[in-house]
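name: query_chain
kind: protein
chains: 1
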Amino acid sequence: MSSLAINPPKMTKASTPLDTVNIPVVLLTVAIIASSFAFYYQSWNASTTLVPAELVPYDVEANKSAKYAESGNINAAISFLGLAFTGAFCCLFKTEKTLPIRNCIIFLLAFQLFWIVASLAWTTNLPVSIRRVPKELCVALSLYGLSRHLCLREIAWAIFGVSTCYITAGFIAEIYHGTFNPFWRYYRFVGTEHPNVLAVYAALIIVTGLMLFNRNAQLRWVLWSILLAAIAALLLTKSRTTLFALVAALTISGLLRAEAKWRILGLIAGSFLISTLGLAISIFNLWDRIGVAAAMGRTEHISSLTGRVPLWMELLKHAAERPWSGSGYGAFWDSRMIQRTSEIFLWEITHAHSVFLEALLNLGIIGMTAYVALLLSTLAISAKATLYTRRPEYQLVFTVTLFAMIHGIAEASFYSLGFESYALLFLIYRLCRECPNYDPLQSLSTSSAQRSSPIPNTRQSLPYKCDVIRTNDSSCTR
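structure:
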């Protein structure tokens, strides 16, 4: 068996992304996804209606989430049916990129979808679950169809494009309404959606943008401009969880792809920097100032993670009532539970503020275990693919998945039906198809003779054209 080289061949001018990425398909994908989620989730007047909680006390009568939790929404039906139609249309065309069933990720995806549908049998609120489960099926059909025709690099462009559209629309909306005031003490960048959600969009721009820099020398100044705007948007949202998760994910991802000596030097330098910084803070008694800076000016209830810890303690009591099966997909947060929980903690609560706790409440220990196994399997496969091929596409999957897991400790965005979870699943669905062509049981520690052997000049031996190992170029031909 011929061995595969660890380092891919250098790219030539003829194999740049502008030549290999199907730009019309990517643009059409961006238009469909951005319009679908914007039609349901985005609000042009969000910056005028979302008021900082520090200025307005909680009003029981004004809890709109509790009022509309069990009501239907025609916009949601149109949005998700549009995504499903797109996926079904893509399934009509044949493709050479067959699904490698031996990849464990596809089984975990299938089981998670099965468990969601099966939860209709024991749900505590059948009307709510009946509306939520078809949406999940529409998303799955959309992802299955689109992932048949877009390679990871094209998906990265699509995620970058959709997120950029949302951030740009947010800036335009605030400037139009006159609510863009970054120097105000209580200001948070709202744009067209909640600041915590916009922060995730900005983080996705940063992660995908850093990957695209490696392949787009001629567009680097454009990408840098968008990247700087995304960093500014992230800081203006004052979302501490997203910022911490992004920095942690990028740091670990950088160490993953770095050579062994640079990993060691990075760990030593990081340890020295943290120790020196801690010593300086102790000597000059800067703990209060550092705390305010780390909280990004939002110091209310910081000791309890902005009220999350008491909320988690309360929700764990409810999870213990149905530990294995949960309340059913989407059934836990009905109008009664939203109203009751919001009255206890005096702020509007519509989710558990934790991906893992949200999965536990809805689908029980079995569903949560399947979801965690899906994320861990994606991490393991993408990490091995990154080390094996040195391709930034696999590093992107690893970084986004790790970011979602760290972010999911204190937020539940990646378990919702929004674009953030759609982007994560888009990468995972494609990873099922575009995984490295190597034996999973084969160790990465091959001999130096195997590593130095040339790449076989047999393109016919590859399972599909958009494979991770190229012979002459890096094209993603259809």
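note: DSSP finds 19 helices and no strands in the chain.
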